Amino acid sequence: MPFDLLSDLVTDYTVRTVALGAMALGAASGALGSFAVLRRQSLLGDAISHAALPGIVLAFMITGTKSTLPLLIGAALAGWLATLFVIAVVRTTRLPEDSALGIVLSVFFGAGLVLLTNVQRREDASQAGLTTFLFGQAATLLERDVWIIIGLGGFAVLVLLLGWKEFKLLAFDPEFAGSIGFPVRALDVLLVSVLVIAIVVGLQTVGVVLMSAMVVAPAAAARQWTDRLGTMVLIAAIFGAGAGLVGATASGLAAGVPTGPAIVLSATAIVVVSLLLAPRRGLIWNAARQARGRRALRTDTVLTDLFALGEQHRGQTHGHAATLIAALGPTRGAVGPALVQLASRGLAEQLDDQSWLITSDGNAEARRILRHRLATDPDGVPLVEDEDR
Amino acid sequence: MPIAVEIQLVAVLTAVACAIPGAFLVLRRMALLSDAISHTVLLGIVLAYFVVRDLGSPLLIVAAAGTGVLTVALVETLTRTRLVRQDAAIGLVFPALFSVAVILVSRYAGNVHLDTDAVLLGELAFSPFRRLSANGLDLGPRALWVMGTVLALVLGFIAAFYKELKISTFDPALAAALGFSPTLLHYAFMGLVSVTAVGAFDAVGSVLVVALMIAPPSAAYLLTDSLPRMLVYSALIAAASAIAGFWLAWTVDASIAGAMATMAGVAFVLAFGFAPERGLVALARRRARQRLEFAQLMLTVHLLHHEHADEADRESESEHLEEHLRWTPTFARRIVDRAERDDWVERDGRYLRLTGEGRARARAALG
């Protein structure tokens, strides 16, 4: 079965075309999406893709064809206009940006719907298939469309690379960029314009409703794996391409699974895995680090408690009961594992079943810990801390 | 009732029911949560449908509202991990849940009335054909009753919690200090938004719920600074957009829901352009007036500066202003005329002299 899939990918025209197209659009939207996510404009993609609908239908009404390029140009113009409108509203009114995005998204889409239903009711079959733009239907992709996706997506990425230094500064410190004389507004519009291009090339495959996920998901996933912009953009492009490949193939294999949702779910799976597993930022990594920290703290506390007991009962050679040590510590719970760990490090020894004694190495280590605590927290408790308990 | 009247009634009820909670969404900067909710309620509807196999069951609405609240909770949980920001969290959660719903619908429910286009787009024109009847008595379109109930619920909730909503919207810290839980209120409110979205969803589709929730309140926000007025204006603009939308759709033979959204957009653009104090035109006029006022003040400061000095005569020639203040001759003449009309300066042959009033203004400007 996997071999069938592999051979399909190599030989079957439709599967190969669709997979290639989905990969190309995933890579482009992943790369451009990184900037949108970093600039807190994740939902701009949502607005742009919805706003493209009237452009698509108008382009069809004007040209009368459903060939990809005119429709994409219409989509891009509408998306671009919508973006400029958002920028204008945010700049001149007190409306929050999310309201501006919401208006543009829904009103443009509504206008697109008026045009679309109007065209549909003209009893003219040539429009059939325009609705695939809502959810995307990759099966309608032709080899020529894939070349258009690769060409336009490549162009968008190329512009991104050419303006790399400027866009980077714009994303992280726009005030500084302005102060050293960069044309911030023009750069803003340029960056958003290439984002528009990356989005419209995906509409035919993923659809206007879900295309926004292709902007956000690969970038949000990539962000978890690195702190470097260049690496993030590269990883996002790879994730986007991977989601495109998996989603398009799954949709091709299973009947009744539209391409757009399949690709989006693949991208979401990548996000979930990244959020959980990414080193240093991931949730599991973090939980493990916290548990490690808690364990170390408890072991240190048990050691210093043992040390304090030793100081109070100088010269005594019998041990101290584990239950007593547990009662001293700030956190209830088992001190057993901590004692065993101390014993394995040679800092404490077990005398009999229930009693423990600190070793000379343990004394030295406890002094070091207490001195360190005192140094980092001058108001902290003095050396023998349990005197008045 | 004629069908056209029934459709318009449903449209107006839907629009108003959406616009009122929408006003709080705009003020609380949560506009796009409505986008997320209106999409993900589909998942609740689909899952509940698989359980009860009846599209008319009230369980569908409960489940849908549940997924709406779940969406908000997921977005907030994701934001709290601090691994992604809120905007990205919204952009991750709702497409995922919506995708699951779309796949479920197109794979397993293709033969019932639950196709994705209808869900996404809604069709108000069909609402009069699904009627509610009791004992053979026709009670009118089902959507009319659904939206009427939703609107009553919305009004009841807002009336009951108006004070709390207001405080927690404008000053969440005060709300918490006063002792009621902003979180609880937040989730209750989001539940209300979800119920509204579900009710409206059937009539106008998920994307256009967003238009009705966001565009009229945004327009109202540009028209007034008072919350009660903003609520009333939102409702009025929404109702007007609904009726205008109906007639637009009638004229061009197109989707009513789409036309309503378009008209809501037109209303917003009108407010954006022509709102009395915050519109673009008002802004431009105010800026132009301020430019003239400032220039007039500059003129008096300039004259005061050179008064009693050797060059006083030369500096107060009106031709000289062009050189010194870099004004065009027309602009200089206009400013001098204005200043003269206000009795800030007077002409003395070729020269300009400050009046008492003008001198006082200039001194005040210099502090």
Descriptive overview:
The complex is a heterodimer of chains A (389) and B (367). Helices cover 74% and strands 2% of the residues of chain A. Chain A has helices at 2-11, 13-38, 44-63, 68-92, 97-120, 132-135, 143-162, 164-172, 174-179, 184-206, 211-225, 229-253, 259-277, 283-312, 322-328, 336-344, 360-376; strands at residues 320-321, 348-350, 355-358. Chain A is elongated, with a radius of gyration of 31 Å. In chain B, the strands form two sheets. Chain B has a two-stranded antiparallel sheet. A two-stranded antiparallel sheet of chain B has the order 3-4. In chain B, a hairpin with a 2-residue loop joins strand 1 (131-134) and strand 2. Chain B is 77% helix and 5% strand. The longest helix of chain B is centred in the C-terminal third of the chain and has 27 residues, at 280-306. The mean pLDDT of chain B is 86. At the A-B interface, helix 3, helix 5, helix 11 and helix 13 of A face helix 2, helix 4, helix 5, helix 10 and helix 11 of B.
Which features would summarize this protein structure in a list?
heterodimer; A: 389 residues; mainly alpha; 3-stranded antiparallel β-sheet; 3 strands; 74% helix; elongated; disordered C terminus; B: 367 residues; two-stranded antiparallel sheet; 17 helices; 4 strands; 77% helix
